[in-house]
Specification:
alpha/beta; 6-stranded mixed beta sheet; 16 strands
Length: 962
């Protein structure tokens, strides 16, 4: 697996500008929007005049509207009072004291803050000597602050320590509160433990003297220490929240914006940490919060950086379209803000997304541009990520020597810069390069070193890749048991990471991005099985195949059962408790799904280098090797091209491909097959587009001018065929049917919707509304179907009655065994939840006439079978590993074990005929679902005008075949 296990990393750096924490604000007066009314100097002048003129009303108004200006005003009066007194100017001193007393009393009365009153009260208790010391201490504090801001820490500490001693000597706790914060700010860059200690002392003093502004500054400083040094992001956010609350309360909006910026940075850092830990759902939540916080304060560059990080997380999840969307928005912002270093980070993450999507050359262009910018700005630490990723590009191109060169140089530089996060990535990728070069002896120690670091930084994403890489070195040595053990550990980590994701969409995209790990391990186990067939490697491989297939659907079915079971349990138990206990089944358990010797399961796993087929019977099984993804895809595309053109004469392309696919996909199972066999096909990847019924069991007859499709040896002539998404899903569907009382065939009920009215569609909100033509035969199809049911057992909704409202009537559908839709279908491959059945649109209704998959999930069914007699209803979004996501799984979730769907756009006339025959076989002849469909298809095949597979092969039965 080393040829695919590589570690691609985000720039991972938060802009250095953001990392400069402006703790200096702890001792500065921060203006707020209040200053838009008056400056500090104007306020002091106006308030002084108001008191001299005994205009208390104006004074009160000024204080109320300019809270943050009052403290500097009173502090100046305290200094002025002392200076006048020391010069013997008693009258002037008393005047200053009187105004200070009035202002502080008013401030306390309005804001319930005692800080200024405490400061004024000192004047009545200090001796003349203490007042002299006060002036000296204030002077030392001012000089020390100047040195601190001037980046002269030693001089600043000396001055501030002298000031602190003097304040302590005269018991000026307000002064102590100021100085302690200043000392904390100085030590922030030198000794964060000492810095935190000073901040803790400062907070005690600031709370004691009731200085709300300084308290807010200290709370902000706490958050900065926990953010930058302890990397304890939850605690940093806790302190920032407290700081925000108090700063907003006192109107310190500039301080509030500063804290808001820091809090956004904490959420961004938290999101990055969670990303490295593989907790992608939580990471996206933190990053979304960071984006929102930066947007609130219009920090565009910061918001652009968060978008870049979001793009990287979506790349990790394999959702490359979402990644590129976020990165495109980020790049736009960085260019507008002229933030070239930030843009370099975005380019790197663009490369990550494009590389994941297989666009190697384009990814290399982005990496190259990113590296140029970092080199131009002399950012060697940031360039590390690019060096690593460029190495993985050459690895993907199988240029292992060049990849090794990049990773060796990067490893050396990461160690020089003491960058552990990058070092571990270089170690892993270098070991992979060496493994592919056959140098297992050099690779082993590098894997071991990478493992030690990855454990210390708690990165499961790295750990599983290291395990998989290490397994390759043991494979070279022929130590297969160790190979299996390491790979099993790797896949368990992937499973745990999948389970941690809360969104079905994220789970599916994540498993799709890591599916190669399962495919490669299964391919390896198949080779081991060829050499040592008695060791059970085939069973282990099957378990991994099931673990990687349709897991979201399996969880959805478990959720559906939980909802229809004990509702109290469903409400009180966590999602994890209810749905994560659904484990994929083993090969032995899969054998138990076959009720008799005639039922044969054929499960496929399509891989890049080779693919596998498990033939499973009631008492036996066999693992077979089949062609790789590329070959199968070429053949499936070829045969589908012929299937979709009913006007085309039989060609050798069709017969050769049809027989070739039979030889590759079915023939390995022939030793297990008999004339009475029933095939359950579990396709994978591109095989989801293939109706196996059209495969040709031989190619000996030749093609002449009069050759008819009816005479070709289609697989359907030998065996009934049904389909399932995985053996585990099939077991879930069958187990749900146990205990359900079988309705007597004569009393089974049908509800059918067909021949909708499209002429009056007037929904301009959908570009495709109004594009549907009437399905004239769909009404006749339903009337014919209904005729096979006992009188009163069929409810039919045609034309104006075939509405979404009638489908959604509370509790209505649950009464019926069969639900039939003869309508147009709309398939949205990009957003499969929007795939719909198109019904009659009543312009007076709130419903839009499109029964979407999201709405189908909310239906409550108890049907044996749902038939979607419409175009392409079996299609949707094909997700690697998950299979086809669309209408089928929506109906299975809603409560049916079987869905009959189509794989291409069908003919109205032929579909009506096929459906009539199907229901006749099902109800009148009382055949099982698979046999009923097979006989209907054979009937169509015998009619020359419908003999082309286009007419009889589009419909496939998925789920419970009985």
């Amino acid at each position: 697996m080393a040829n695919k296990i590589r570690s691609i990393i985000s720039n991972g750096r938060i802009s250095m500008l953001l990392l400069i924490i402006f703790i200096l604000t702890s001792n500065l007066v921060i203006s707020s929007p209040q200053s838009q009314q008056l400056t500090q100097a104007q306020f002091s002048e106006e308030l002084g005049k108001a008191y001299i003129q005994n205009n208390d009303h104006l004074a009160d108004s000024l204080i109320k509207d300019h809270r943050l200006f009052v403290k500097p005003f009173v502090n100046d009066l305290i200094t002025e009072c002392i200076r006048h007194e020391l010069k013997g100017k008693t009258a002037e001193s008393k005047q200053a004291l009187g105004i200070a007393e009035k202002a502080s009393a008013t401030f306390e009365n309005i804001f319930e803050e005692k800080n200024l009153t405490i400061g004024v009260n000192y004047l009545t208790s200090w001796t003349k000597e203490q007042k002299e010391k006060k002036l000296v201490a204030d002077s030392l504090y001012a000089v020390g602050t100047k040195f601190r801001l001037g980046k002269e820490p030693l001089k600043a500490i000396e001055c501030l320590q002298q000031a602190l001693d003097l304040y302590n000597n005269i018991q000026d706790e307000r002064g102590e509160a100021e100085v302690l914060g200043g000392l904390g700010a100085i030590y922030f860059d030198q000794d964060y433990q000492k810095s935190l200690s000073y901040y803790q002392e400062a907070l005690k003093k600031r709370e004691k003297v009731d200085d709300r502004q300084l308290i807010g500054n200290t709370l902000n400083s706490f958050g900065s220490v926990y953010l930058n040094y302890f990397k304890d992001f939850p605690k940093a956010i806790f302190w920032f929240n407290k700081a925000e609350t108090i700063r907003k309360e006192i109107g310190d909006l500039a301080g509030w914006r500063t804290t808001h910026t820091y809090k956004a940075l904490a959420y961004l850092s938290f999101g990055d940490l969670l990303t490295e830990e593989g907790k992608y759902t939580e990471a996206l939540g933190k990053l979304d919060t960071a984006l929102q916080l930066n947007s609130e304060i219009e920090k565009r560059s910061n918001a652009g950086e968060v978008l870049s990080h979001l793009g990287f997380v979506y790349s990790r999840l394999g959702n490359y379209s979402a990644a590129i969307e976020k990165l495109t928005e980020s790049a736009k912002i960085m260019k507008e803000e002229n933030d070239s270093v930030g843009l370099a980070g975005v380019y790197n993450n663009f490369g990550v997304a494009l590389q994941g999507a297989g666009r190697i050359e384009k990814a290399l262009d982005y990496y190259t541009n990113s590296l140029k910018i970092y080199q131009l700005h002399d950012k060697p630490d940031m360039a590390l990520a690019i060096m690593n990723n460029m190495g993985t590009i050459y690895f993907d191109r199988k240029e292992y020597v060049k990849a090794e060169d990049y990773h060796e140089k990067g490893l050396q530089l990461s160690r020089e810069l003491n960058e552990k996060d990058e070092e571990v990535n270089f170690l892993l990728n270098l070991a992979n390069d060496q493994t592919m070069l056959g140098n297992a002896e050099a690779a082993g120690p590098n894997y071991e070193s990478a493992f030690k670091i990855s454990r210390s930084i708690n990165s499961p994403d790295l750990i599983w890749k290291i395990f998989a890489g290490m397994a390759e070195t043991y494979k070279i040595r022929g130590e297969y048991d160790k190979v299996v053990q390491l790979n099993d550990s790797a896949l368990k980590i992937i499973e745990n990471m999948r389970n941690a994701l809360q969104s079905n969409e994220l789970q599916a995209s994540y498993m799709a991005s890591e599916r190669f790990a399962f495919e490669d391990i299964i391919n390896m186990l198949e080779k081991f099985h060829e050499k040592e067939s008695a060791k059970g490697y085939d069973k282990l491989a099957f378990g991994y195949a099931e673990q990687s297939k349709s897991r979201v659907l399996l969880d959805l079915l478990a959720e559906s059962r939980a909802k229809t079971g004990n509702k109290d349990d469903y409400r009180t138990n966590s999602r994890h408790d209810l749905f994560r206990n659904t484990q994929p089944i083993s090969l032995d358990e899969a054998e138990l799904l076959c009720p008799d010797k005639n039922t044969i399961i054929l499960e496929y796993m399509v891989g890049d280098s080779s693919s596998c087929l498990w033939v499973i019977t009631k008492s036996n099984h066999k693992l077979c090797k089949i062609p790789d993804r590329k070959r199968l895809q070429e053949q499936v595309e070829t045969i589908r091209f012929a299937l979709l053109d009913p006007g085309q004469a039989i060609s050798e392309f069709f017969t050769n491909t049809g027989n070739s696919l039979y030889e590759e996909l079915i023939k390995p199972a022939e030793p297990f097959l008999s004339k009475n066999s029933k095939l359950i096909i579990i396709p994978d990847g591109v095989l989801n587009y293939l109706p196996f019924e059209v495969l040709l069991t031989d190619n000996k007859g030749g093609i002449g001018p009069g050759t008819s499709y009816a005479n070709l040896p289609f697989l359907i002539k030998k065996y009934p065929v049904s389909y399932a998404q995985s053996a585990s899903v099939l077991k879930s569907l069958l187990s749900e049917q146990k205990g359900i009382k079988e309705t007597d065939s004569d009393n089974k009920k049908l509800i059918a919707f067909g021949d909708p009215v499209y002429e009056n569609v007037n929904d301009t909100s959908r570009s495709f509304a109004g594009n549907y033509k009437r399905l004239e035969y769909s009404g006749k199809e339903i009337e014919n179907i209904a005729s096979y049911f006992k009188k009163g057992n069929a409810e039919v909704y045609l034309r104006n009655d075939a509405t979404e409202e009638n489908v959604k009537r509370e509790g209505e559908l649950k009464k019926f065994n069969y639900i039939h839709f003869a309508t147009h279908g709309f398939i949205d491959e990009a957003k499969p939840d929007f795939s719909s059945l198109v019904l009659t649109k009543d312009n007076n209704s709130e419903e839009d006439g499109f029964l979407q998959a999201t709405e189908i999930f909310n239906l409550n069914l108890n049907a044996d079978l749902v038939v979607l007699s419409a175009c392409q209803t079996g299609l949707g979004k094909l997700i690697r590993g998950e299979g086809m996501v669309g209408l089928t799984r929506a109906f299975m979730y809603a409560g049916t074990p079987t869905v009959l769907v189509s794989l291409w756009s069908v003919s109205d006339v032929s579909t009506a005929t096929l459906m009539g025959e199907f229901y006749k076989n099902l109800i009148k002849e009382k055949l099982g679902k698979t046999d009923a469909l097979r006989n209907a298809q054979l009937f169509m095949l015998s009619d020359e005008k419908f003999a082309h597979p286009f007419y009889w092969a589009p419909f496939v039965l998925i789920g419970d075949w009985r």
